[in-house]
C-alpha cells in the first residue's frame, strides 16, 4: 500500500488523491483548467508541479510554510534553551536577532529580471547561484512580494530572449551597411572557440559588435567559411557587404578570406549577367545542373584534396569565363571591395620574435628566465620581501610583452642579486649580463608602448600608421644593435602588413598622413575609392539620385505635370550621354582632384572631425570615408573577447552548452563594448 502522507500540508489542498479505482495511487490537480494527473502522492512531486505551472498558488504556499517554519523555530529555540545543549547565540545576541527590523524595498519586476541576467552574463556568476540557500534567503521575500519565482531555468530562458533582442538590434543597426569583420580562434579548457566581431562607423565613432562566440570542431578554412556565412545569415547580413576581414597571419584564416572573396566574385558574376539573353540563362541552368550531379561533400575531404578541388575550380573558371565573354560579347566585372587585412599588433609581435631568434639575444633571455626562477624560490622570496622588492614575474614564451615585463622586474632585483650572489652561485652573474639585459629592455621600450596604444578601440588606420612609424623612429634613435634589428624587422614586415587596398584607401582619405603615399600607392587607392563609390551607389541609388536633384537646384515642393515632363526629358537626354554608373565615376574623380589640393592636416586632429567639416564639399568621398576609415587594423577586441571568456567558461563550468555560452557572450561582450 502507498505510504500515508501528512494531509495537513497546504500543498495537498490543491490535489485529490485516489487510493483505489481507475486512477489508483494517483493525484489529480484541482486547480481550474489543469486536471494534471500525477503518479503517487509524494509531497515533492506535488510541490514541483505547482512551482512550474501555478506560480501564484506556489507563492501562497511559500508564505504559509514561512509562517509555519517561524513558529517551529521559536519552539525549538525555547526547548534548546532549557536543555544542556550548547546555544549558538548568546542571550544578548539572541535578543538582537529577534528584534531585527523589516524594511520596505521599492523594486520593479523588470529590475529584478535584469539584475539576475546581469549577474550571470556581465558579472560572470554561474546559474547555480540562483539556487544557493544564502541567496534564496535574501531574494525569496522579493519574489513572493512580486508574485513570481526565479530559478536557473527561468534565468536561462531570459538570457536567450535577451540575446535575441541584442541580435535584432544589431541587425537593425547594420541594415544596408558595409562592415568590417574581425575573427580569430582560441582554445579554452580543451574547447576551440571562434570569435567573430564586426566594426563600422556610426555617428562619427567606431562601433564594435560581437556576432558570435561559436565552438568549432574543425579549424579548416572551409569550415570557418561555413560558420562565418551561417553567422551572417543569422543576422540577415549579406556577405557582399563585407568590406574587409582582419585576421592574424594564420594560414587557415588567410585561406578563409580568399574563399569569401571567391564566393563574392561568383555572386557578382551572376548578378552582372541577370540582363543577358535567354540563351545565357539556359547555359547557366545547365551548368548548375551539371555541378549538382557531380557534387559531393567537400567537408569530408582532407585539406590536400580541398586544395586540389580549389585549383581545379580555378582552372575551370579561367577557361570558361573568357570563352563566355568572347562568345556573347558581354562585359563582366569581377571586381569587389572585399580585402583581407593582417593584424598590426600580431605583426609587431612577429617582428620582435624575429629579433629574439638571434643567438645572443636568445641566450640573454634564457639566462634571465633561469635567474627569475631562482629568485622565486621560497628562501629568496622572504629576502626580497624584507628588502621591499616585488617578486619577479616569469614570462610566457609566445608573448614578448610578458618577456619585457620579466626583464623590467629582473632589473629591479639587480642589487639583490649582487649582494646574495656571493652566497648563492645561481644568483652570481657578471656585469656584462646586466648590461646586455638593460640594452634589450631599452630597445624593446618603444615597441612595448606601441603594442599598448594599438589596443585602443577608437583606432583608425591613420592612427595605426602614425604609431607604427613613430615606433620605428624612436627605436632607431636608441642606436644599438638590438634596436636597429627591431627597426629593420618592422620595416620588412610592414610591406606585407600595409599591402592592402583597403588600408591604402584609408590612408589616402586621411589628410594627416596621405603625404606618405607614393605614386603607385596613390593610384591603387584612387582605383579602390572609385570601386567603393560605385558599390555604394549600387546598394542605395536613391541617395545618389537625391544628390543629383539637389545639385540642379530644382524646387521639389510643388511638382506639376510640366515639371514631370521636363524631368523625364532631362533623364532621357542624360541616359543617352552618360549612364548613372559612369556619372558616379566622373563625380568621384572630380572630388578626388579637388581633395588632392587640400593642405596636410595636423596629426593631432581626429580624422572623423576633419571629415565632418568636409562632408558638404565632398559628399561622395564622405560616404566612402565612413566605410574605409572603419577598417580594423588589429583584432585586439577578439583577443579581449577570449579574455572575457575565462570568466564564463571556467573550471567549474567547462561543460556549458555551446548555445547558452554563445548567448551569454553576445549579451556580455556587446554590453562591455557599449560601456567602453
TrEMBL record:
<keyword id="KW-0479">Metal-binding</keyword>
<dbReference type="InterPro" id="IPR052035">
    <property type="entry name" value="ZnF_BED_domain_contain"/>
</dbReference>
<feature type="region of interest" description="Disordered">
    <location>
        <begin position="73"/>
        <end position="95"/>
    </location>
</feature>
<keyword id="KW-0862">Zinc</keyword>
<keyword id="KW-0863">Zinc-finger</keyword>
<feature type="domain" description="HAT C-terminal dimerisation">
    <location>
        <begin position="599"/>
        <end position="670"/>
    </location>
</feature>
<dbReference type="InterPro" id="IPR008906">
    <property type="entry name" value="HATC_C_dom"/>
</dbReference>
<dbReference type="Pfam" id="PF05699">
    <property type="entry name" value="Dimer_Tnp_hAT"/>
</dbReference>
<protein>
    <recommendedName>
        <fullName>HAT C-terminal dimerisation domain-containing protein</fullName>
    </recommendedName>
</protein>
<keyword id="KW-0539">Nucleus</keyword>
<dbReference type="GO" id="GO:0046983">
    <property type="term" value="F:protein dimerization activity"/>
</dbReference>
<dbReference type="GO" id="GO:0005634">
    <property type="term" value="C:nucleus"/>
</dbReference>
<feature type="compositionally biased region" description="Low complexity">
    <location>
        <begin position="73"/>
        <end position="85"/>
    </location>
</feature>
<dbReference type="InterPro" id="IPR012337">
    <property type="entry name" value="RNaseH-like_sf"/>
</dbReference>
<dbReference type="GO" id="GO:0008270">
    <property type="term" value="F:zinc ion binding"/>
</dbReference>
